[in-house]
Amino acid sequence: MYGHQSAALLPASVPQFFTRARGALLWDADGAEYIDYLCAYGPSLLGYAFGPVEEAAARQQASGDAMTGPSPVMVELAEALVSMVSHADWAMFCKNGSDATSMAVMVARAATGRSKILCAENTYHGAAAWSTPRLAGTLPEDRAHIVYYRHHDPDSLRGALQRHAGDVAGVMATSFRHETFRDQEPAPAEFAWAARRLCDEYGALLILDDVRAGFRLARDSSWEVLGVRPDLSAWGKCIANGHAISALLGSDTARAGAASIFVTGSFWFAATAMAAGLETLRHIRETDYLEQIALRGARLRQGLDEIAARRGFCLAQTGPPQMPQILFENDPDFRIGYGFTDACIRRGLYLHPFHNMFLSAAHDDGIIDRSLEAADAAMADLATRCTDLEPHPGALARLGLGR
Ligand SMILES: Cc1ncc(COP(=O)(O)O)c(C=O)c1O
Question: In percent, how much of the chain has pLDDT > 70?
């Protein structure tokens, strides 16, 4: 098993294969049920198999999916996204987040006639040769024009722009700092403002990678609340509530560049996911899903803090409550976090020891109550086993602590 959905880096109790998912629940291949806080690593926003979206998808599927050209639903979906995302004047569709970020890189280069793309160190933008976190199978040439700056550091960004003045096509940023194995950090408004100003000063396009956080922080692009509009934004994961589609949105500044590149895929224009996207966007606009997810995330966070305090642990809970990162203080090799995840999995609660998690609108109060009950029992168990815990070899290797 490859990529981020491999269970190899997780406690041995974490299942690898699943057969069913409904609402906030997931069943593994042995039939065990879990309350799932990964939401397929983001795509489930309204809950797995959400009725209205599935019905819209089924209707479209019955009349045509992958056809010789797109359905008019593609235009409706583009219009819906452009009407919701303030910076966007046009949309292009593809299948995965990696497609959308790679297309952003191409559009930025085509629009500016320049080479360099500036990315924050250690930030995940997908698994293409220019972005994949592991270098095996890639060439130095694949990222010869990728330049790294320090996260949320305007001086580092300015330095990179100065060093490559006249050759920077785009600056990539993420909604917030959401790396694995560390606390999450909101993007400081000062950084977002500086990034916008510097891109304008140096003639580079500002690209916001909203693949992970899109529509979980705002009904617009994530930096809109900071008053910053990118030139390009990459979307994926939840925009069709689990159906396979991603998007690149752009402003008129980048329109000619976007129109000039050649990009396509056999399944990029399939209509079922587009119909699912259209219905998902309707729910995003017309319901309070976002406020509900944030409230439930805050309840979970507070409940976990209370349980931890009672059981003698101290949690580091960071990130927006609707995309929580749950780590333990004083746990440098993550053995406590792994022990907790293991104890939770055994009680039907699917948490992650080092990756940010996701809530969906199906995580209602009853699900949060059940989650807190399971977490309490898991922490009681953990308290009795604390001195016997061993670090996970895979985690040690990732942390550079291998023996
Ligand atoms: C910020 C970010 N960008 C890009 C991607 C790549 O998306 P995908 O896995 O759909 O290719 C991800 C996936 O996790 C992501 O979190």
Answer: 100
